[in-house]
Amino acid sequence: AAKIKNLELSFNALWSEGNTYTRKQQDSNYESLESIKKNLDSVLKKIANQLKSNEYEFSLLTPYFIKKDNNKFRVICAPTIRDKIVQKRIYANLIDKGYLLDNEISYGFN
Fold it and tell me: What are the beta bridge partners of residue 65?
């Protein structure tokens, strides 16, 4: 079951990983870490309730095209902040149960 305290731990991890610039960046839902922090209790309660009732739906990923040195582009697909909170909680639950999610080609779970 989704506990608000656990979701708060996930949010706090995202906050601490960020900096002034990234905390202000808006996702595809026009939310930023800063805007969510202002309403953190209500946002986390909503996520927890949606998870408990099996109504939480992950949003579509937002593609970003990053130009590389060779003038080609690398596509990075970013989840919304709410999805990142849920993903961090899922990851923590899996680690707590002894699963290892080491992946040499993806940094998505680092």
Answer: 75
